[in-house]
Amino acid sequence: MPEAFTLKKALLGSVKFRWLNFTGYRNLDIFVSPRYFCNFTGVFFKGSKVGFGAVTPGSKAKLDAMYVKSVKEIPYNVSVLEISQVILPYDLSTPAPSANALNTSAELEKAGCKIFVQLITVTGVLKTYEDAITTGLTMFAPTNEAFTGPVMAKLNKLSSAQQVSLLEYHAMPVYSPTARLKITSGPMSTLVDNPPISRAHTCAPVPQTLTPTPSRASPDVTAALTEPTNIVLRSTTSDRPVLKWNHIVYESAVSETDVILFAKGINTRQGINDVPQTLRCVFSNTVETAVTVSAQEVFRCPHPPQHLQSQLSSGKITLIMPSATYYNIPEAKKDIIPKKSLCTCTMVFNAAKFMKEWIIYHSHVGVDEFFIYDNNNEDHLEEVITEFVQSGYNVIRCLWPWAKTQEAGFTHYSLAATNKCKWVMFTDVDEFILSHGWLQDPAASSNALKIMLLNKTSSSNRVGQVSMKCRNFGVSNLKEHLVAGVTQGYTCREREEQRHKSILLLEVSSLSLMNVVYHFELKPGYKTVGVKPSEAVINHYKYQAWSEFKKKFTRRAPAYVVDWKEGKNGLGSQDRAPGLGFEAVRPLDWETKFCQVTDTLLRQFMENVFSVKNAGSLNSLMQW
């Protein structure tokens, strides 16, 4: 039997290769399916000119990757061949068309889809389509004939929400040319699964991603080729499992030099990280790059080769695990804008009532920008932030639907703020920095936090982080939240300081971006300096009226902190409130707990700086 070799197809589509000027025969074309091995005898190549190219059956291709020589052969097993250039999948070698100035409705009407245009216009789905175009869109638009007979009557019986879901089901949030659809057999997500986020709410300047909304359920869609030019959609809900939240790439960001993925299911224990060498970033299921950093839920890897970036843009990116995020090319450098001295970042869930007091106070003492991660808030947070923005405050809201990802959110902001903020403070909205020096002259306290930060770092250029102790305030006999604010209602605390919070110099955070919620790992050579409680502390209004505090039993924000209703860490965990069990049951003495020292210093400061006269009353009101 003649010597044989095996060639396995590894790219999308079929590989086509042609024997040119084959002696005694016409040119010979052979297709290799993605699912099979092909066996040829080695003598076929001898004395022949062989060209390779990736195509779909029935189409023409450039066979310009030429056979050069055989590198290694193992009979009946494998053969390594040298060819003159890379064989690109058909849809990667075809540039994606520009979406600039595309009139979606006009193009659809020209194609005979006027009724479909009317439907997506009146339901608002047209705007959803247009928002998705910039990052990629594949639309399956029925023609007018499809709405004949009983179809319209059935549509009219659907609720508005059902009509929207049905119309969003007819588009995918990724650009897929016809050639790719012809060879696709796996399930594909639609806009119902992955609605495009409005630009007003994205986490600029970190590139936009398509984030699935956890509360919306929808069928997946599979594209199947029935005729050479016909694509049909069929639901695969019944036979495809839902993505599991504990094993998924849920968010991404890009820098000029690399891609950063946020993923659950790899580093599942705090302080124990999988080595990067065991992982790979995969772009659109075709291109891989090595993972360089694996730390908590953060993974970094290089961009794909530059000549492939535009073709891979908006394609799925993963770590060889389920993914809900997409690759975006880093934006070109813009004009350099002077950095803000001090920004602050927080993540909130149903905390709108606390925002005004927290923002007004910290803006007064020197914070230039407030970045709020909206972790599925159900209150009027957006309304509160809009009011601040209209009043001239620099407040940015970022939709962040992922549960138990506080560390990842802070890492995400450390990337987003690199080019616009010098220092960033990471705190909660029930925490307020206070320096005893500010009490002596409240009128001079404007920008006092910046001044204190400058004084703590001026003696050394190796200071990368400033850390302050926290004082936990108790319930102070309150039974409900005071409109005047937490600083006015909670006036007693525990005697000993607990834990700490930090202000980070962004440019010296380590490449791993490792953080333990409120402090970051630094580059070698940089240090964290502590602030003595006699200089400054953080008042943490931790133990509030029971109607507020019991909400903490719903869920905890950090990735490695167990929810309070679970018994995994026991009742001795530092995150828990002493004396409470695993259920939100109010202790009989709750109103008097955690009160060892009376402390009204910040309340007095607030009254001196932020109180305003109440017309017709002897009492003053706070600005919020």
From TrEMBL:
Entry superkingdom: Eukaryota
Q: What is its EC number?
A: 2.4.1.-
Q: Which Pfam families match?
A: Fasciclin, Glyco_transf_92
| Enzyme superclass (EC) | transferase
GO CC, one annotated term? membrane
Query: Mind telling me which InterPro entries this protein's record contains?
Result: FAS1_dom_sf (IPR036378), FAS1_domain (IPR000782), Glyco_transf_92 (IPR008166)
According to Swiss-Prot or TrEMBL, what is its membrane topology? Single-pass membrane protein
Which GO-annotated molecular functions does the record name? glycosyltransferase activity
Question: Where is it localised?
Answer: Membrane
Main localization of the protein described in the UniProt heading: membrane
The record, for PROSITE patterns, names:
FAS1
Record key words, sorted: Glycosyltransferase, Membrane, Transferase, Transmembrane, Transmembrane helix
Tell me where in this chain the FAS1 domain is found.
100-261
Q: Which family does it belong to?
A: Belongs to the fasciclin-like AGP family. Belongs to the glycosyltransferase 92 family.
Protein name according to UniProt? Glycosyltransferase family 92 protein
